[in-house]
């Protein structure tokens, strides 16, 4: 698991290498001290941190290096799946782009599955293969990345895409999504998106839309389908 | 352009923060050390114009914004507000001018006092600066402002406290507080970066409309170039306390001349799966500290175009062939020809 904002997830009082070594000691107690450290140094170099930095404290590393160290931390047990919660949100674009590339190439090398949790559509477009869109605690659309970006079905997916600025292509007007995300203690009846939906129908106010599959192997929860 | 259209103009503005504690002090105890947060910047903003100040974390954007409003004291340089240099004026002397400048903060959760309801939050600047004395007139002004930022003007809404409002509503109140005095100049520091993506566009549109309606000079601080593209007429790109490139937004994005701007633009993620980046970003290394600056061009340790002369010459921001496009790189002409 890679948490948002490396600054909080690494313990500031312990050396980076020791923190990674600690994970091995907890999950694989049979591994010898020496082999453990070999793996620590190996995993650091794999994420692009010089192994000589293993004895550094987190504050001695830059933001991008701290984020890489966290990726190392999550890789050291040879997991099959990594869940990354906003792994690059706190980083500057240049570092962000380097870390994303790193994650993508490690994923390819190690054959990992990656679950990327983020609000940033452009980060998703850069790195993901498929996409699940959540609204008010529910998944409202799921499918292949390209299909969702080119042909969004759920009005929320479509609205999000139209509200997101880009620096390439023709400069387009951004579309506004009216209203605000609902209070989950007291969510709207029927479709939870209905108070903000441009295509709302009578049925949407009272009935929860069922999840249906689409002809391109995706799923959508909306009364239009 | 008539000169009276100019709201604000800064000349060679600097802010150095002294460093007192820590190891640096103990090593260099003889000399004072400084963070060169803002290190000689120049730009101007006209009525109704939005200038974007973009750059990575720590490059000095917030410091520049605070300097322009004189919320911190400049180390040196000038800040002409409608032609008057306010850089050296005392707090007492700029009292009147303060009414004409406002700030919108990044965090709508922290920037509103939990003890003020909506009415008082928006009325406070009017009362504090004694712009309107009659409570009836204040109420009218508050209503007009609420309408302008797209919020309800009902009794019930007046009495709500910040914790009873959504993030977007709170930030709209922040915008209302800034515009309620009809100021000539506003600084907005990352005003939507804390907001849910689905409500950002609404807040941006309102700021854009108000800037046009009141012909406010607007400094929009952001690290997000895509957002700057939507909001700004011009952008100034900052690197380590300096402006390295400035020009019309679309021109800078389509035709960046400074190697740092080029790198920055190529690193911005694109919300289109068909436009995935394949090339590596043309930049090396990491941002140096603002304490010990590289000699010559301060970007040279990271610049893929750096030549020997870049270690010696500290490039000034100069006008290019295009009248509105400025760049601080001694090799920009060669680099431009290289690419074509
Ligand atoms: N009060 C202060 N005392 C000492 N140094 C400061 C102070 N405020 C800012 N700095 C330093 O000045 C430099 C510029 O900081 P500033 O906050 O202006 O950057 P920024 O561009 O707004 O960054 P961000 O995008 O992270 O908000 C940084 O190196 C910062 O650490
Ligand atoms: S179910 Fe109705 S309200 Fe919900 S997204 Fe579909 S059309 Fe809109
Ligand atoms: S002056 Fe030299 S080092 Fe600086 S940006 Fe231009 S080419 Fe690069
Ligand atoms: Mg800042």
Description:
The complex is a heterodimer of chains A (225) and B (340). Chain A contains 9 helices and 6 strands. Chain A has helices at residues 6-9, 16-27, 33-46, 63-75, 93-110, 121-127, 145-150, 155-162, 202-206, and strands at residues 81-85, 113-117, 130-135, 138-144, 211-213, 219-221. In chain A, a hairpin with a 5-residue loop joins strand 5 and strand 6 (219-221). The model of chain A has no long low-confidence stretch (mean pLDDT 88). Chain B is an alpha/beta fold and 340 residues long. Chain B is 31% helix and 21% strand. Chain B has helices at residues 23-27, 61-68, 95-98, 118-128, 135-148, 155-158, 167-179, 197-214, 225-231, 249-254, 259-267, 332-339; strands spanning 6-19, 33-46, 50-54, 76-81, 84-85, 101-104, 185-189, 217-222, 234-239, 242-248, 318-319, 326-327. In chain B, the strands form 2 sheets. An 8-stranded mixed beta sheet of chain B has the order 6-7-8-3-9-10-12-11, sandwiched between helices. The longest helix of chain B is centred in the middle third of the chain and has 18 residues, at 197-214. At the A-B interface, helix 5, helix 6, helix 7 and helix 8 of A face helix 7, helix 8, helix 9 and helix 11 of B. Residues 258-259, 297, 299-300, 303, 305-306, 310, 315, 329-331 of chain B line the site of one iron/sulfur cluster (SF4).
